[in-house]
Write a structure and sequence with these properties.
- This protein has about 170 residues and is mainly beta.
- The chain has a domain of about 100 residues: Lipocalin (Beta Barrel).
- About 15% of the residues lie in helices and about 35% in strands.
- An 8-stranded antiparallel barrel has the order 1-2-3-4-5-6-7-8.
């Protein structure tokens, strides 16, 4: 007597477990239709009236921040700037990352967690003398900073707002 192959035995077992030999036989029967209650016609109430828009006062003008005098500025080496920093401006605080990979207009930089378009746009940095410039991807200056104490830089954004970078 011939024994069924393992594949044939598996198929027979599946068909037997299914309870029938054709597909779709185990589908549930459709439910009978039930008549719906008639829909009543009535006028809808008028939509609520929106309150008048609130006019917000324009933000106060930004007073440009002056950089500390040359005598108050500390000398800076590129290698001192590499790594992670906190950048603050206008009540916003986020992270700034600086490295020595060459990039258009200087070296690579990036931010994380910033909400303002200006701080999110930091892509590069450069050091000229004692002055650090943060730049966007088109090498336009975003911020200019100087060191006033070890591990802390102060300056201004291109809008004139104050900016601080520190560890």
């Amino acid at each position: 007597m011939n024994r069924p192959t393992p594949l044939a035995a598996a198929l027979l077992a599946l068909l037997a477990a299914g309870g029938c030999s054709r597909f779709g036989a185990n589908e549930p029967m459709p439910l009978p239709a039930v008549p719906a209650a008639p829909v009543a016609a009535a006028e809808l109430p008028p939509p609520p009236v929106a309150p008048p828009p609130v006019e917000e006062a324009p933000p106060p003008p930004i007073t440009p921040v002056a950089l500390p005098t040359a005598e108050a500025q500390l000398p800076v080496q590129r290698s001192e700037l590499v790594g992670g920093w906190v950048i603050e401006s206008g009540g916003e605080r986020c992270q700034l990352f600086v490295n020595l990979t060459g990039w258009t207009g200087g070296y690579r930089a990036s931010t994380r967690g910033c909400t303002s378009e200006q701080l999110k746009g930091v892509s590069a940095w450069d050091l000229a003398g004692k002055e650090i410039t943060l730049k966007d991807s088109a090498t336009a200056p975003i911020a200019t900073l100087v060191s006033v104490e070890p591990g802390r830089f102060t300056g201004r954004l291109s809008t004139g707002a104050a900016v601080t970078v520190y560890r």
